[in-house]
Amino acid sequence: MSNNHVAYEFVSCAKLPTRFGEFTIHGFVETASQQEHVALSYGEWQTGDVVPIRIHSECLTGDALFSTRCDCGFQLEKALANIVEEGHGVILYLRQEGRGIGLLNKIKAYNLQDTGLDTVEANEHLGFDADLRDYSICKLMLDTLNVQKVQLMTNNPKKLNALEAMGINVVERKAIDHGVTDDNKHYLMTKTSKLGHVFNLEKLK
Ligand SMILES: Nc1nc2c(ncn2[C@@H]2O[C@H](COP(=O)(O)OP(=O)(O)OP(=O)(O)O)[C@@H](O)[C@H]2O)c(=O)[nH]1
Ligand SMILES: [Zn+2]
Q: What positions does the entry give for Zn(2+) binding (predicted)?
């Protein structure tokens, strides 16, 4: 499978019991860079069914280290719980840490934010665009899992547009605005004002 000049392949899958329920983990690799990505699937569906999915970008600090600087860990837990409640669904877990700048650059960006810059200004100060993510691998992941129509759990319309551009039918967007903390209110406000996120501003008061 290739998109523009990037080629990806499916490698293997295995059972993944979690605190939420038993998922299956599917491993994929971007051939040139050897960057590894995973999808988690739960339950069953038929060709053409609408499947709840989340495209989640890696955030080591939020997903694994309980950081409250962002909402990632809360969103991941909520998405896993939603999928189990719905009876089926998919998480595409993309290894694009720090919106694509990598973990150590994200720590540098956090350091700048500690001095007063916002998340976008910090990226730009380091010489990066605000968001470097590429969603092209999602097509192979969803094709492999036989998903053509989705309900997308996100506040980010760019993800919705990226999926539609690659021929995935996004039937519905479901807001995932859980995990507002005193530590991340400013960050969520900046995402809404500068990065095009759709967020219920009442929750940020
Ligand atoms: N560069 C940078 N990346 C960050 C920062 N805070 C979180 N991230 C990364 O941002 C990514 C998550 O993106 P978000 O902008 O929070 O949300 P989203 O994925 O665009 O949208 P949702 O689907 O609504 O969650 C993860 O890769 C995080 O590591 C930051 O201050 N700077
Ligand atoms: Zn995060």
A: 59, 70, 72
For range 14-28, the mean pLDDT? 98
| Residues whose beta carbon lies within 6 Å of some atom of ligand 1 | 57-59, 70, 72, 75, 96-99, 101, 106, 109, 119, 123, 154-156, 159, 176, 191, 197
Q: Identify which ligand lies nearest to the alpha carbon of 73.
A: 2
Determine the residue of 68, 72, 110, 203 to mutate for testing ligand 1's pocket, defined as the one with the most ligand atoms within 8 A of the Cβ atom: 72
Flag whether the pTM goes above 0.90.
yes
Domain ranges of the chain: 45-96+133-198
Query: Phi and psi (nearest 5°) for 147?
Result: -115, 120
Exposure of 92 by Cβ count < 10 A (0-12 exposed, 13-18 middle, 19+ buried)? buried
- Catalytic residue numbers read 131, 133
Instruction: Give residue 4's pLDDT.
Output: 55
Q: Which atom of ligand 1 is nearest to the CA of 191?
A: 15
- pLDDT for 2 beyond 50: no
The CATH class of the 45-96+133-198 domain is alpha beta
Question: CA angle at residue 66 from 118 to 195, to 5 degrees?
Answer: 30
ipTM of predicted assembly, 2 dp: 0.97
